[in-house]
Structure formats: structure tokens, C-alpha cells
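Predict the 3D structure for this chain.
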Amino acid sequence: MEVRFAMHPSQFKTLTTEQIRKEFLIETLFEYGKINMVYTHVDRVIVGGAVPTVEALVLEDGKEIGAQYFLERREIGIINIGSKGYVVADGQKFELDKKDGLYVGMSTKKLEFGSDDPSNPAKFYFVSTPAHKQYPTEKIDIKQTEATHLGSLSESNERTIYKYIHPDGVKSCQLVMGMTILEPNNVWNTMPCHLHDRRMEVYFYFDMPEDAFVLHLMGEPQETRHIIVRNEQAVISPSWSIHSGVGTKNYTFIWAMAGENQSYSDVNPVPMKDLK
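Done. Predicted structure below.
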């Protein structure tokens, strides 16, 4: 588990491209037969990826979280972006096709990831946040999630937003999580952009070919920076930063939030004229 610390926006302004990437970009989440994780001190969120092959992978606790087991005081949201697989939570097995999700509540003692076909494995992307209340573990079928169609081709942002974990759907202590799928020939996300002072966010981009990328924008609205994000990479976005992007072609991204509240609409819009 890699550990990263929080940063003040005044320090962010002084960073080079290499330093920005080191602090905020998560480049390697998926490796065959491994679980990779990044612990950020921004709201103590853990971002991870698991690719089980021949043997199932068990999510272990570590000294970084100071618990007897991983979910002793945490909850977790999981979305499979690979081939068919399964997650076993305290003996209960959940089958997950591509883009199906799973919420696992606090106090679950054992969590295992497995693939139906080791030669064509599942890829489990997950985000874990601290929790103080236990909510039921629940599978999230993408076909049964709340879906909202937004944007237009003229604005290059026609997309469908799927809400997986949120107050009006699968409930959690503080985690909010979902997926946005852009239609072909659409490339912009979250523009006009916004801030949300009471929540951090993580964006995970995927379903891109090897030679494609997203130009992810971050920083304070009056002094923005960018990160080139490739397929299956994630960006940590502190509450003071915008989080928007434009791709070389259409793509899909998973968004996850943690912080003071779970209100999806609790945002501070940034007028387009104020961006610099």
C-alpha cells in the first residue's frame, strides 16, 4: 500500500509536471495476481485494483490503517471493469459481470476477489473510506442502477451517469460512487466544472485504447494545471481542486467521493469565464 499525504493549494502551484503526477496520479492499479492500493490522507481514502488469476486474492489489513482487518472501521465500493468474476464477503459470494458493482459494509472480516477464467481475469477497481456505521452488503447490477442521460453532441459531452452508491440507492456511511459513460464522438466531462468544498473525489478512467488519453484538469479555478491520464489510471482530486477532462476519444470513468456529506448536488459551480 502506497501512502500519499495531503497538500495545500498554495504548494500545488509550485509543482512541476513530474511532481503533480507523483502526488495525484495513480498510474498502476492492475497487475495480474496482485492487489495494488494507494492510501491518500485526503479524507483517508484508499484506492485499489485487484486482478485475481489462478488463485483468489484476499484483501489484507495493513499497518497503514491500524485495524485488525481491512473493513473493521471501513466500507468499500467495488466495480468490475474486466471479465466475469466474483467477490466473497464473509462467505457470501457475489457474481460480477463487467461494470457490475458491489458495496461491502463495515465490519466485514474477510473479502476475496476471484476470476471465472484465470486466463481472462476480472479487474476489480475499488474505493474504501472510513465508516462509523454498518450498512448492508449489496450487489449493484448496472442495468438496475439509476441512469441519467445528459449533455449533447454539439457540446461534445453526451453521456450517461450511473449512480451506484448514493443516498437514494445503495446506501453507505459516507462513500458515494458511480460511473459515467460518454457516447461515441463525445470527449468532455464535468465542464462547466465545479468545486465541492465538503468532499474530495477520485476519477478513474478506462475503456480507452492504448494510444488514447484524457487531459485531466485540476487545481484552483483561477490557476489550473493538467495531467495526461492513460487507460486504467486514476486521479486524486482534493476538495479545493476542479476535476474535469477532455479525451482524444470517448471513454468511461468511475467517480467516487468522500467527505462531509453525500449530497450529489452540493457543489460550487465555476463560471466558464472565471477559468484560467
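The chain has one domain: 2-274.
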